[in-house]
From TrEMBL:
Transmembrane segments: none annotated. One of its GO terms (molecular function) is DNA binding. This is HTH-type transcriptional repressor YtrA. It comes from Maritalea myrionectae. The lineage of its organism: Bacteria, Pseudomonadati, Pseudomonadota, Alphaproteobacteria, Hyphomicrobiales. Keywords: DNA-binding, Transcription, Transcription regulation.
Length: 131
């Protein structure tokens, strides 16, 4: 599998990396159980920051595209192909766009929506810290 990162592209580097790994899974260029390079190795190969690769791997692991097995390495998840069809970012955008539309229709200003959203996020973060 060859990964190519375009630093001139407006799409964030971690998103490019995620998209290419998902595409490799969908086209069977990466099969379940296949090993992936370490974060450090892939960052060096692509000449990008290791934090960028770590972020991509974390999101891919969240989406069950990859699985990290401690010091043994990172591998393609057994259900990666079916899981790669789900796009949480698109779903999140859809839900937020729907809610924003309803709020605007009710006369809520964009500023009020931003303030309410930030308050919700702050409240959620406080609840997660206390758990």
């Amino acid at each position: 599998m060859k990964i190519v990162i375009d630093i001139e592209n407006e799409e964030p580097l971690f998103s490019q990396l995620i998209a290419q790994i998902k595409l490799a899974v969908q086209t069977n260029a990466l099969s379940p159980g296949a090993p992936l390079p370490s974060i450090r190795q892939l960052a060096n190969d692509l000449e990008i920051n290791s934090k960028t690769v770590a972020k991509a791997y974390k999101l891919l692991e969240r989406d069950k595209i990859i699985v990290t097995k401690g010091y043994r390495g990172t591998f393609v998840h057994a259900d990666a192909k079916s899981n790669s069809a789900t796009d949480l970012n698109a779903w999140t955008h859809e839900i937020l766009a729907e809610a924003t539309g309803k709020l605007r229709a009710a006369g809520v200003t964009d500023s009020e929506i931003r303030i309410a959203f930030q308050a919700c996020m702050n409240n959620q973060n406080k609840q997660n810290i206390g758990d």
